[in-house]
Amino acid sequence: MKKLSRKTKILVLGLGLVAFLGVGVVVGKLLFGNHKRLSEIEAEVRGLKEEKALLEKDLRETQDRDFVEKEARERLNMVYPGETVVVLPKEDQGAGEDMEKDEGFNLWQWLQGLF
Is the pLDDT of residue 50 over 90? Predict the structure, then answer.
């Protein structure tokens, strides 16, 4: 068998080293890219877990009987049988303001204005 010259040995060793480094760079990029993506997914999972905890808390609160009763009364204006709803005027309105407005409207004058 023929011995390889020193130049050939250095050339083969250099090409092998370049190939080894090239494969190392490609594998490194793949691993780094996967690590970066893994970090992003872990952050997303943490955010979703926090959102889930808040939603579970809201669910527990909405299943509470007092909450359901309050919402039914305030949003749906529901009352228990036999209860009477009393609506009070707002405090900033005077007691006679509504009557003054009604006194200013006269149906007869309005009808005469049409003809």
Answer: yes
